[in-house]
Write a structure and sequence with these properties.
mainly beta; 6-stranded mixed β-sheet; 14% helix
Length: 176
């Protein structure tokens, strides 16, 4: 069972797998693996911030560079669950970027730019959608509406148990 915990803004901690990790941390945590949205010249051993493919402690990672490598989004596979973490603010995703993501089970989408959210959601078509606050900390109502999550309860933690349902898409909203 994987536990997904909001750390504020679009930062999430995923634990319960072979090694806990934080995507887009507000501050780097030396006790976990950290995934940063922008390359660092001299990253610490527990930090991944560059485009490329990595295999760390049973976690498979693909860093996808955007804006000529200035911004990095991630596809992370842990315990046979494939997560996509687009970096905020959202950029246009080109066909080759979508192909690099591959099949995604869980899309973690910042609630900003409804048009880009809709395009990415349609292209990726995940079994589960996790909506996190935008870079400014807000959950834009137009994004919640297009995802069918206007009346969803906002949570701080979610436990992903077993497999996904046979039909439909589960939507979870963090923070706000």
């Amino acid at each position: 069972m994987l536990t997904i915990t909001s750390l504020g803004s679009s930062s999430l901690k995923v634990s319960g797998g072979p090694r806990p990790f934080v995507v887009f941390p507000l501050k780097i945590d030396a006790d976990v693996l950290n995934f940063l949205p922008a390359p660092e010249e001299n990253p610490l051993p527990h930090v991944i911030s560059w485009p490329g493919e990595y295999d760390v402690a049973g976690i498979t990672v693909r860093g996808i560079g955007q804006l000529e490598g200035q911004k990095v989004s991630f596809m992370i596979t842990v315990d046979d669950v494939r997560f996509a973490f687009p970096a905020s603010p959202l950029e246009d995703w080109h066909d080759e970027d979508i192909e690099r993501l591959g099949d995604i089970d869980v899309l973690v989408l910042p609630a900003e730019d409804a048009k880009r959210c809709q395009t990415l959601l349609d292209e990726v078509d995940p079994r589960m959608l996790i909506i996190v606050p935008a870079a400014d900390g807000s959950l834009h109502p137009e994004v919640l509406k297009l995802c069918g999550a206007l009346d969803k309860e906002h949570v701080k933690e979610y436990k992903l148990k077993g497999s996904f349902g046979a039909e439909g898409r589960e939507v979870v909203v963090f923070g706000g």
